[in-house]
Amino acid sequence: MNITPLADRVLVRPVAAETKTASGLIIPDSAKEKPLKGEVLAVGQGTKDEQMILKAGDQVLYGKYAGTEIEVENEKLLIMRQSDVLAIIK
After folding, report:
1. What is the average per-residue pLDDT within 37-57?
2. Quick check: helix, strand or coil at residue 88?
């Protein structure tokens, strides 16, 4: 994959949605919620006003409607501004 985000944007691979509940029930596709967690694949250079804090490999939480979904090599990815990321998971 050869995508480099511009300015203060990051490329995120969402974590796959859960397919089973803790009790073992299978969740149908129509009832699955959009994942709110993902892995940063690439980051832009930042802007003069905003320095990039995120780096490739970070696990992050983001808002439910954050970013724009794109498809690259049959894989769904999100591209969003660094400010749309809510937290880094350590």
Report:
1. 94
2. strand
pTM: 0.81
Q: Which residues contact 33 (CB under 8 A, 6 or more apart)?
A: 17
Q: Name the band, by pLDDT with cuts 50, 70 and 90, for residue 1.
A: low
Sheet with 59-62, strands from edge to edge, namely: 68-72, 75-81, 9-14, 37-43, 59-62, 85-89
Distance in angstroms (rounded) separating the CA atoms of residues 47 and 43: 12
What CA–CA distance (Å, rounded) separates 45 from 50? 10
Residue 78 and residue 14 in contact, taking contact as beta carbons nearer than 8 Å: yes
pLDDT at 39 > cutoff 70:
yes
Give the separation between CA 72 and CA 18, rounded to whole angstroms.
Answer: 22
Structure tokens given for 71: 């498809």
Mean pLDDT, rounded, for 68-74 = 92
